[in-house]
UniProtKB/TrEMBL annotation:
Listed Gene3D superfamilies: P-loop containing nucleotide triphosphate hydrolases
Lineage: Bacteria, Pseudomonadati, Pseudomonadota, Alphaproteobacteria, Hyphomicrobiales
Boundaries of every ABC transporter domain copy: 5-240
Protein name: ABC transporter ATP-binding protein
Source species: Bosea rubneri
Keywords assigned by UniProt, alphabetized: ATP-binding, Nucleotide-binding, Transport
Stored SUPFAM superfamilies: P-loop containing nucleoside triphosphate hydrolases
Entries under InterPro entries matching the protein: AAA+_ATPase, ABC_transporter-like_ATP-bd, ABC_transporter-like_CS, ABC_transporter_ATP-bind, P-loop_NTPase
Length: 264
């Protein structure tokens, strides 16, 4: 698969009047088309910050982010963020209206073209029967399908999801992971997905970028393409889970954490 997104030497920092916080430090990675690329690491290691930077909402302190060889310099419809609990759906709009909205508001697709695209993607995510209903009448899994359809209608190169299932109970979370994988089988989008759950990373991911604790540095990039729901509880799943656990919790060998106080 060709490289779609390249991250090279990415250092991301927050500068407040009294502090300089280094969120990620010299991170390298590459996402290929149709990857389900998971960024995994403990709380505070800079996962969300990295996704924000890929989304174009943050400028690197050092390094580069390139999409199809072009430097990312701000947000764009080629990278669509799907938010936690799919809260971007507008409750007063039907499924069809929700899918149409970003196309029309951005002016990217208009009139019949927008309508045809919306109907086609709604069909792809198997929601044709529900296209005239409102989000509150849908299950969580269906809402996710609408949120993804809405993003996909813009024909992005990559979908970005930041801990989309973190607030859900364990059973619902499993169901949503399953729905996401089924949808990926049908639509084959490229996904960048942030989680701090090792199990979720292995289930959802085809490749996993393991980041160290704060500030996030690359610990490893692992192949999980052969592991998913049907392998939970198998020795292979357990072995990868143990390996990631060790990577996450072994002592830091490198330089001391980069966070430092800076004089205002
Ligand atoms: N707006 C901000 N201003 C200053 N520091 C911030 C800001 N947002 C995040 N940080 C800091 O940057 C570091 C990385 O945060 P980030 O939210 O990216 O981590 P994360 O790995 O996504 O964590 P979690 O799993 O808890 O969401 C943390 O030390 C955090 O406190």
């Amino acid at each position: 698969m060709p490289r779609l997104l390249e991250v090279e030497g990415l250092t991301l920092q927050y500068k407040t009047p009294n502090h300089l916080v280094t969120a990620t430090y010299r991170v390298d990675c590459a996402v290929h088309e149709q990857d389900r690329y998971v960024i995994l690491g403990p709380s505070g290691c800079g996962k969300s910050t990295m996704l924000k930077a890929v989304g174009g909402f943050m400028t690197p302190e050092e390094g580069h982010i390139r999409l199809r060889g072009r430097e990312v310099s701000g947000p764009g419809p080629d990278r669509m963020m799907v938010f936690q609990e799919f809260e971007q759906l507008m409750p007063w709009k039907t499924v069809l209206e929700n899918v149409l909205f970003p196309m029309r508001i951005s002016g990217r697709f208009k009139g019949k073209d927008a309508m045809d695209r919306a109907l086609s993607i709604i069909d792809k995510v198997k929601l044709t029967k529900f296209r005239d209903v409102y989000p509150h009448m849908l299950s969580g899994g269906m809402k996710m399908r609408v949120a993804i359809a809405r993003a996909m209608a813009m024909e992005p190169d990559i979908l970005l999801m930041d801990e989309p299932f973190a607030a859900l109970d364990a059973l619902t979370r499993r169901k949503m992971q399953d729905e996401l994988l089924q949808l990926w089988e049908q639509v084959r989008f490229t996904l960048m997905f942030v989680t701090h759950s090792i199990e979720e990373a292995i289930i959802v991911g085809s490749r996993i970028l393991v980041l160290s604790p704060h500030p996030g540095r690359v610990r490893a990039e692992l192949d999980a393409s052969q592991l998913g729901f049907d392998t939970v509880g198998t020795p292979a799943f357990g072995a990868l889970s143990d390996k990631i656990h060790n990577l996450l919790f072994e002592h830091e060998l490198g330089p001391q954490r980069q966070e430092e106080d800076a004089q205002a």
